[in-house]
Write a structure and sequence with these properties.
With 387 residues, the protein is of the alpha/beta class. The chain contains 13 helices and 16 strands. The strands form three sheets. It has a seven-stranded parallel sheet, with helices on both faces. The protein has a five-stranded parallel sheet with strand order 2-1-3-4-5. β6, α6 and β7 form a beta-alpha-beta unit. α3 packs across α6.
Amino acid sequence: MFKYNCLNPIAGVGLANFDDQYEKTDVLEDADVVLVRSAAMHGMELPEKLLAVARAGAGVNNIPLELCAEHGIVVFNTPGANANGVKELVLAGMLLASRDVVGGIEWVESQSDNADISKQTEKQKKKFAGCEISGKKLGIIGLGAIGQLVANAAIHLGMQVYGYDPYISVDAAWNLSRSIKHIQAVEDIYRECDYITIHVPLLESTKGMISKEAIQMMKDGVVLLNFARDILVDEDALIEALKAGKVKKYVTDFPNPKVAGQEGTIVTPHLGASTEESEDNCAIMAVKELRDYVENGNIKNSVNFPNCDMGMCQAEGRVSICHRNIPNMLSQFTKVVGDAGVNISDMVNKGKENYAYTMMDLESPATEDMVKALEAVDGVLKVRIVK
């Protein structure tokens, strides 16, 4: 029996994917696995028995990734599960920035007692008319799950789409419309595009990437959309650009004191992935990732350990090892197993930056003595008998 703990409310349609081998616990210390959305895990004491954490969403800034890795705790996220919800909000953001629909609605509400509202409407509507997005140039920085959906949708809306992503995956490239222009230098996005939307992860290399210098390269009257992370944008420089008229509109899903109520901004209350469908999809994916790891040792969509898949175990035993990505580990593992008189029928080893993961299928069941010997190898973080 395995126990799971939810640090945030998780959609029931996702939790329904746990079978009778899993039991919910409200006590974190008793949990084998944890599901989380936005709860801050930094500073939490991690239970010794904890195997994995699954973030029902893409961003993992609320999870101490390296600390988890050092305890052999695999952290998963759910990339793409909420992509359609974010895509639709990005499209809405472009439309709201192009035509002052909100301002028009507010004006109509202010005239609710005006018997002459119909005539006044014809005089006032020019203030809210705006422009169409068809034919305009859209620059997309980051062509992952969300970026590629935005790109394809914008093509169908008649926009000229420029995409920049030096790390684009083969799958993402196959999913993109042929009409999208692949740009080699992000500066060309800044110079050419009427609308720019950011869809990159928050890394040290991307923090503040929309800087004062980047904004200066942009066309006058550019519309900037940020549904990724607020600190990708230097908001002090952005507000200066809004006041100067360099940036026409800034659309963001991340309210904070700097942008809330600022003239020229359209700020939504972090609605990107908050649709019922997105929350359901994230919960379902998170539970499936946890089950595959707990039951088979397989890793998919981890952010601190490498992806690794050996399918369902057909051998007599399977052992998984979370360890540091340093030389001479495999030879030590195989020696331990050989000294125990057990033959290895299959093995896989994958590395990701400072950490690595090894699975071994055995022709005989693993013993506790074997596990203790593997744990004693310098650099090993956690050993588990999967079967």
